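Give me the fold.
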Amino acid sequence: MPPVSRVSFAHKVSRSKRRQEISLLRQGFEWIAPLIKLLGLLLLLLGSFKLAPTLLLAFQGNEVETKIFFSSMLVTLASGGIMVLLGSFAPFHLRGRQIFLLTSLSWIVLSLFSALPFIFGPTQLPLADAIFESVSGLTTTGATILSGLDTTSQGILLWRAILQWLGGIGIIVLGMAILPFLQVGGMRLFQSESSDWSEKALPRSGTLAKAIGKVYVGLTTLCILSYWIAGMAPFDALVHGMTTSATGGFSNYDASMGQFAATSSILWIGIVFMFLGSLPFVLFVHMIQGNPLPIFKDSQVRALAKILLGAVLIMTLYLVTQLNWEWSTAITQASFNIVSIVSTTGFSSTDYNGWGNFAVLFFLYIMFIGGCSGSTSGGFKVFRHQLSVILMRNQMMTLLHPRGVFSQNYNGRPVPDDVIRSMVAFAFFFFATIGTLALALSFMGLDFITSFTSAVTAVANIGPGLGETVGPAGNFSSLPDLGKWLMSLGMILGRLEIVTFMILFTRAFWRT
């Protein structure tokens, strides 16, 4: 029989280990609890918006689809409520590493619950298709696998529009509050929030979010009313107003905005609101507060306007001189489709694949532009093109004058070297992701133009690609299931600025 002292020592060691294990479990729960709570709150928000299509279907007397949407709403709300309850058992405190994980998890979890009506509703989509459609909606990509939209249930059509509208406001918050704080891809140029996301920091970010929310709702309402006055039916105006202000591009017609191509006023309303949706929303807040000058002085806004005007002029001249179009038709069609692609909205008013090789290559080039930071647009973003020009100019000046010191200014402020490095790193990951995704799609038997433009439109969150299969007259339903999964991942990567998601797979992130 061992001495008492040895038994006592063994018990002490055992108790010490248990205390350490309990302490580690407590620390782990306290680390993950705020994420669970916030994800639960997002699910409660998502579930509450499912009430709109539920009520619409109930009003139309469609009992079967009403029950499906109502059940989907209950599942989402119940899941969110349980998560909020679980997350409330620990103090709320968020810092950088947690926000990286939360940002990625939120888009994945919301996409899964958003897919429920597509799976169990009238569309009866397979899992890969349903996830593709919901991811495309929430990321405001606008790529679709659905056909026969003209006769699809209005409940599903409204749900698609709601997904893009919710994704639009989420993208603004992501681009203005989260990504600048995470210092992703040069976004620190627009940093305005505290690095401590505890309750002390929330009032400041909450005030900005409320102001942006009011602007977003106001812009959407104005867009809906404008479409309705111009001749759209009320439901059409509602759907297209929501997806235009979100620069999303989901339509309730297979022909997209080509359904209204005969009414040029509708197309010009779309042009105006797609452009407004691609501007930094914080500048609209300044305007409402009585300071309109920033929106005219902002370097991003001026650059985007110049790019659009130049692109429209080139395409208009091409349509008039090479295809013998009338000036008015050429200006309208060129303006609408160019603004749609550059703003990453993804509407189309005609099949521009039929405009000739020059037009197809031209549209491929402008896919890489994107809108402004702090807007609902995706893509490479205008400010990164501007930073690239600054970097290239300084490099050439350094070659000419090796001992010279040259300033790096953007929007009247100096640009730190770490911002430039961050932008260069993002550019590498951006184009590497497109190349990898395109190669994977081509391995599945897709032709070059389909593979490459599918990859571009996913990562840049644009919508339609080019070519007969995935162009403005087609959709993505014919892609293999694996291709749809990869494109869904590409859309999320593009919306999260890639690095935010990729960093989760590094050892350094998970080290304590």
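The longest strand covers residues 409-410.
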